[in-house]
């Protein structure tokens, strides 16, 4: 059945990594609590024949630092089952009917791993003005805040070049230093042989 209103839409749903993993034998090792390293116990002597010569003291320091990381084998703890981090994606794409190179998308991503979960809603506009240029901008909101990003992609015969920003900073200091630490800019080039 062809519904005229929906002919320009594409829908998608995906459930990824839904399941669990089981370890039959869970082996456990531990440092058994807090360990300390005291530098006051080392006295260096310039005499190479002394028991606390530079070489001997450096060897003692290396041995004592190694001892900080020694693990005690606590043996087999039995089996363990853990849920994998499942990701649920649902999206819609609208192909603009009056200009073939313009598309709008909406994507929801939800990730759940035990008691930890996050979600993200993303709205994008994709423009293909010619065969070698793609442009896209998006806005997103979710568990980790709100932001926007974009990408410029040049795909010529023989190579592909792109620059993308997943989270463009919006607040700057007087010296134009971004006041957010979430900025993520990527640049890449691929050569096709």
Q: Can you give a write-up of this model?
A:
With 193 residues, the protein is mainly beta. The protein has one helix at 54-68, and strands at 9-16, 20-23, 27-30, 72-76, 80-83, 86-95, 102-113, 116-130, 133-142, 145-156, 159-167, 184-191. It has an 8-stranded antiparallel sheet, with no helix packed on it. A hairpin with a 6-residue loop joins strand 6 and strand 7. The model has no long low-confidence stretch (mean pLDDT 87).
Short summary:
This protein has one helix and twelve strands. It is mainly beta.
Main sheet: strand order: 1-6-7-8-9-10-11-12
Mean pLDDT, to the nearest integer, reads 87
**End-to-end gap:** 44 Å
Stretches where pLDDT falls below 50 for ≥5 residues? none
Structural class: mainly beta
Q: Strand percentage, roughly?
A: over 45%
Descriptive key words:
193 residues; mainly beta; 8-stranded antiparallel sheet; two-stranded antiparallel sheet; 12 strands; elongated
SSE map:
Layout: E1 9-16, E2 20-23, E3 27-30, H1 54-68, E4 72-76, E5 80-83, E6 86-95, E7 102-113, E8 116-130, E9 133-142, E10 145-156, E11 159-167, E12 184-191
Antiparallel strand pairs: 1-6, 2-5, 3-4, 6-7, 7-8, 8-9, 9-10, 10-11, 11-12
């Amino acid at each position: 059945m062809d519904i005229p209103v929906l002919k320009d839409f594409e829908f998608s749903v995906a459930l990824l990594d839904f399941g669990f993993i089981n370890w039959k034998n869970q082996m456990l090792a531990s440092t058994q609590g807090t360990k300390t390293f005291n530098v006051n116990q080392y006295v260096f002597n310039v005499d190479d024949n002394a028991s606390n010569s530079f070489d001997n003291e450096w060897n003692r320091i290396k041995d004592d630092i190694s001892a900080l990381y020694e693990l005690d084998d606590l043996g087999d703890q039995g089996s363990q089952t853990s849920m994998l981090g499942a990701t649920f994606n649902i999206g819609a794409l609208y192909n603009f009917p009056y200009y073939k190179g313009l598309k709008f998308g909406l994507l929801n991503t939800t990730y759940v791993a035990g008691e930890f979960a996050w979600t993200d809603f993303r709205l994008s506009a994709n423009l293909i003005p010619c065969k070698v240029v793609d442009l896209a901008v998006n806005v997103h909101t979710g568990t980790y805040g709100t932001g926007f990003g974009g990408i410029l992609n040049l795909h010529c015969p023989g190579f592909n070049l792109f620059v993308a920003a997943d989270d463009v900073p919006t607040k700057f200091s007087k010296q134009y230093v971004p006041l957010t630490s979430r900025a993520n800019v990527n640049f890449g080039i691929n050569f096709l042989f």
